[in-house]
User: What shape does this take?
Amino acid sequence: MADKYDRLKLDNQLCFPLYACSKEVVRRYKPYLDKIGLTYTQYITMMVLWEKGEIGVKALGERLYLDSGTLSPLLKTLEKKGLLERKRDEEDERNLIVRITKKGLALRDEAVDIPLKMGACLNIDAEEAQTLYRILHKLMSDF
Amino acid sequence: MADKYDRLKLDNQLCFPLYACSKEVVRRYKPYLDKIGLTYTQYITMMVLWEKGEIGVKALGERLYLDSGTLSPLLKTLEKKGLLERKRDEEDERNLIVRITKKGLALRDEAVDIPLKMGACLNIDAEEAQTLYRILHKLMSDF
DNA sequence: CGCGATTTAATTGTGTACAATGCAATTGTA
DNA sequence: TACAATTGCATTGTACACAATTAAATCGCG
Assistant: This one.
């Protein structure tokens, strides 16, 4: 019963489960992230800052695959929350540096259990998770 | 060098590559979708209509994992483009039915090559694609 | 050195996503 | 059969995403 439109069926797409799973996982983070007052995008931004302490907006965008249209307002929001500081690079005034604050660093202790809680609520075993991780990273090596 | 914050590192997340790959794949569709005047979300909506001809908004939302807040304006946009008609179910006026138009059906011929073109521009072989598909669908079975 | 090209963040405009709320139609039940 | 509960789409408000444009700072070449 193959017809020339078979490839256009939703069930035959790889993009759609990727898109649907991504949204669902973000949705499942929400209850935990609400408790610490972050959105998902703010959370991955804080992850980078927890690890690096400070970073330029350009490098941050490359790490998160986000551009300034997304990051500029988001970083201002996080500054308003007192989690980071924004300052111009004195060497080159074009660059904006974001640096984590004490309050931002303290938030890490409230976030530390989130990854385990999330893992527990996903229907995936360790081996499949690792396979998924590997394939997705291989895809990303091409971006 | 393991510390208690290791799980909070971006590189140790499964959610992040999922999120990044999903966005990147949608971004790569854009040049092809621009040619037929659809966004990605409009494209997957049309996929359902190409297959089913007509469907209620509730069932459409369940199929795409989207709610009325997303679908209501999107379906009005597609109606304005002349690709579908919106009408109330005469049996139960609460239900809105969307039905594809001739113009909407004709668009399928312009879209038919998109899945192959997309497949060609992703750095993934057939076996990995199948594994990825299987794992993501297993995840989705839980939504 | 002067000045056009490049780099970088910010802004603007469009289109999702989704929680929360509103509201009209229908259903279930006393 | 009233009427409270439920259902289903629409609306509102918030927050991304990202393309395109702008504007300021720096670079590089003649």
